[in-house]
Amino acid sequence: MYLQEQGILETRKDDVDEINAIMLSMIPGDVKTYMSCDTLSNSNNCGAFRDMEPPELLHSLKISGLPNHCLELKVGAPIILLKNLNQLIGLYNGTRLVVTKIEDRVVQAKVISWSKVGEMVLIPQIDLTPSNLLDLQIRRR
């Protein structure tokens, strides 16, 4: 399969977002948009970020290792996992998949990399918290 052997390397998140939008527009079908739910994990201990309560401020943050607040997917779109979900069935950080079905709270996808190529898996809503931030403990679902 073509997507198993191809990739685009980019250093800036803004460029990645633009390339993703262009590539998604080339795939036929309807777009499903997922909006994140962002919270500060320890809002009492967040130092200078303590007053960052309006959700719009949290939604506007583009942080390495987290998807954007607005995530658009289509059936047939390639995706990459950002977190180890289940190592026993081959769902590691960096696993490449292709979306096969989109629901409100789960995405079905076919694995196209590593040892579990061809297996169908379900990707649920998950909470991601980047570990490389100083005082800010944001959690994005």
Describe the 3D structure.
The protein is α+β, with helices and mostly antiparallel strands and 141 residues long. It has one domain (2-140). It is built from 2 helices and 8 strands; from the N terminus they run αββαββββββ. The chain has helices at 13-25, 55-60, and strands at residues 32-35, 38-40, 70-73, 78-80, 96-102, 106-111, 120-124, 138-140. The strands form 3 sheets. It has a 4-stranded antiparallel sheet, with no helix packed on it. A hairpin with a 3-residue loop joins strand 5 (96-102) and strand 6. The longest helix is centred in the first third of the chain and has 13 residues, at 13-25. It is globular and about 40 Å long. The two termini are 31 Å apart. The model has no long low-confidence stretch (mean pLDDT 80).
Write a concise synopsis of the structure shown.
This protein is α+β, with helices and mostly antiparallel strands and 141 residues long.
Topology:
Blueprint (H helix, E strand, L loop, with lengths): L12 H13 L6 E4 L2 E3 L14 H6 L9 E4 L4 E3 L15 E7 L3 E6 L8 E5 L13 E3 L1
List keywords for this structure.
single chain; 141 residues; alpha+beta; four-stranded antiparallel sheet; two-stranded antiparallel ribbon; 25% strand
Mean of the pLDDT scores?
Answer: 80
- The structural class is alpha+beta
Low-confidence stretches: none
Strand content: 15-25%
Distance between the amino and carboxyl termini: 31 Å
Describe the biggest sheet? 4 strands, antiparallel
Question: Which oligomerization state do the chains in this entry correspond to?
Answer: single chain
* Number of E-type strands: 8
Number of helices: 2
Order of helices and strands: HEEHEEEEEE
Domain unit count: 1
Shape: globular
What strand order characterises the main sheet?
4-5-6-7
Rg (C-alpha, Å): 16 Å
Helix content range of the residues, please?
10-25%
